[in-house]
Design goal:
Number of strands of chain A: 17
Number of helices of chain A: 17
Oligomer: homodimer
Radius of gyration of chain A: 28 Å
């Protein structure tokens, strides 16, 4: 008997979960059911598998039928939508019918709603007080952003969690209160994720380059390629029972990859190149400017999406017309005639010109053919020159992106920011 | 009997459809099931109602169980995903099991694959030839972009359509071949959509302003509010049997709305302000430039996403630092000290400066507090001044957007483009 018990422990308990989204707006295609993806991702990260997602309309019959089916298969059912105060929100009615229950007034919820409305100076409408009514056996889950509480049902070994459909209310409730509770309740396996961000090589070439590393990954670590314009993200997911051991193995694999492709990795998880370069500039008290032709202001836009960027970003010249390149950036007319606007000579003059004009420590310049028109046999659509200028010198590289217009603009901007990052790391260390 | 038949004709036949998406990548939250929304929207526009969406993983059992359930409820079942050439693509296997069929070689599909691969110079791999195998009773639907054909089953009065999961393959196949056939087959009602694009008023104020128009809409026309930063889209959906009559009624309602809010409407359906303003500039042979502070290059970026924008866009100065406003745009130091950077005086000087500097007919300038820091009691976060300058004069307006940083940037850019559009229409007519 003892050996039997021991042998059982090597199995990993997998909790099966299903997600039901309620709302006519999903079924008519007006909104994409992004709530379900977000919930699935979060459940996955605590070791719970989602085996089915369902979306039904604002109809009591449809909700009950979906609940019957999911309840017959899953251990955990998460429901979103239809908890709001308007007439078409009928989820609570369907829950009462499904569980054969009535509604009770939940005093803590009522007090919270009163407090929330009082604080905001909104009059206490009856329709909002109805939000404090919950099915008899439900535990109310606090909603710190909106008035509709979440609901938690424990029925015959199965857990039912009901949340509002408004994404930021659902996410806050799920992160702060539901996920920790689910993790306690379903002590299954642990999944750890780590995403490595690379720039400078396409998905297929990168996968060839790191093929032997990928094939040598242990079986409990999975790799996914997630490409974006100019960036390939490598997501590692490690699944097991021992979190410390998983973390250690993940760190080792990432370390091994870092040694293999040090030039391609620029960050991890939610890092952004515009924030990373901004941090380096701020750290060394440096300033930056741009001379943008084919990117048309997109690099300056990315830089200025970061709060506090005014500390290091002084300005940019978007020089679309050649006359602006000449008169505003000091590009020589001769270079434009001799080499053309999309050339090493001109992009370096643009970068140097911006740096002097804006009186910054560094400057980025771009000049290329974004498309769809303007390509020639020698310089096809997607040909781009990027330069980074500093007092210590000017670096320029040529790229051939060959994409459609918007992708060419995005890839050029991302590549330029990464060039700046590399120059900064090299020169300021 | 005759009257009975006639009375039947006033009922609208509604076809019930369900959508099943297949793929582990959906269940782990790696991708959002946007295929389902797109399909639902398209079905809706030809008068077919989607009553449920389901997503299951790459498992034969899960696929069969989802098919059994959908088949028991719907008249039309659309399935996406799992038709590719890799090992985890098992939809065809599940279809054969579900319909109790084997696979047959479809010659036209084989020829198309051979031709496609031959044209592209790719060697003919066995795994790709397997794509030409289809279930016995299936009609193969041509895939003009990829190698996996779609499948059409007609079984006991129900139609099953199976499509690849790659969005652009699915959309092309559905638009070109499946939707016309479904429309023929399910001769139900027709739905016409028209979206009216408004700028300059928030959703709640707008809905109060047009409430009586909305309430007077005939019952077969529905209105949906679809807000975006700076823009409120009003989508009208008309449903009925007589397309000509529906179109006429829709045109009349839109005409009535145009007369009510002429200043707020800037376009229809997929129109974009950056393209609309670009068309006007090109039409009158005019040029434009920008002086951007809080928008940080985003207006120039929007303008330059439009192919051919180099015809009318000469350049922009992103003037984040005050010293750049002074030295590069000619803003007076006195104005900056006396009124502050976010003021009517300074934004007008910026617009005039850009217009002269870049030698353009028109110039836009923005100056504001995007946030999250930098606000004061007099000028809170979201305070924005926008100016449009031309040889005939300079117009400036103040706005209080009060959003978070990225939304403030987007709203400012959209509002500025619409200000330019109005000035252009007024001055060039």
């Amino acid at each position: 008997m003892k050996s039997l018990i021991l042998s059982f422990q090597i199995f990993i308990m997998i909790t099966k979960a299903e997600i039901i989204a309620i709302g006519d707006e999903i079924l008519i295609g007006q909104i994409v059911n992004s709530n379900a993806s977000w919930i699935a991702w979060e459940l996955n990260s605590i070791g719970i598998d989602v085996v089915r997602m369902t979306a039904v309309g604002d109809s009591t019959d449809a909700i009950i039928s979906a609940m019957e089916e999911s309840g017959s298969r899953a251990d955990l059912i998460l429901i979103t939508g239809g908890l709001g105060p308007t007439r078409d929100d009928i989820t609570k009615k369907a829950l009462c019918a499904f569980f054969h229950e009535g509604l009770r007034l939940d005093e803590p919820t009522l007090n919270e709603i009163k407090q929330m409305l009082g604080l905001r100076g909104i009059p206490l409408k009856e329709v909002l007080l109805e939000q404090a009514l919950v099915p008899d056996s439900a535990l109310a889950i606090r909603n710190s952003i909106g008035t509709a509480p979440g609901l938690w049902f424990d029925k015959k070994g199965k857990v039912w969690v009901v949340m509002p459909g408004v994404p930021f209310e659902m996410k806050e409730m799920m992160s702060a209160r539901i996920l920790p509770e689910l993790r306690n309740r379903f002590t299954g396996s642990v999944i750890l994720h780590k995403t490595i961000l690379t720039q400078g090589m396409g998905e297929s070439r990168l996968s060839e380059l790191i093929e032997d590393w990928e094939l040598a990954l242990p079986s409990f670590i999975r790799l996914a390629y997630l490409p974006q314009p100019g960036i390939v993200r490598l997501r590692l997911s490690a699944r097991g029972e021992n979190e410390r051991m998983l973390q250690q193995e993940l760190d080792e694999q990432i370390h091994s990859l870092q040694q293999r492709i040090p030039d391609l990795i620029f960050g991890y998880d939610d890092d952004k190149l515009e924030a990373i370069t901004g941090q380096i500039l701020a750290q060394y008290n440096l300033t930056i400017s741009m001379a943008e032709s084919c990117t048309g202001g997109y690099i300056a836009h990315l830089i200025t999406t970061i709060p506090g960027s005014s500390k290091y970003f002084k300005g940019a010249v978007v020089a679309y017309a050649n006359e602006v390149k000449i008169s505003k950036l000091g590009v020589s007319e001769r270079s434009l005639i001799e080499y053309g606007a999309v050339s090493e000579q001109v992009v370096c003059e643009m970068a140097d010109g911006a740096r002097k004009l804006m009186q910054t420590d560094y400057a980025i310049a771009t000049s290329g053919i974004a498309g769809p028109d303007g390509g020639t046999p020698e310089k096809p659509v997607g040909t781009v020159w990027i330069a980074v200028s500093s007092a210590k010198g000017t670096t320029a590289h040529k790229f051939l992106f060959n994409d459609e217009r918007t992708r060419n603009i995005h890839r050029t901007a991302i590549t330029a920011l990464n060039m700046l990052r590399k120059v900064l790391i090299e020169r300021e260390k």
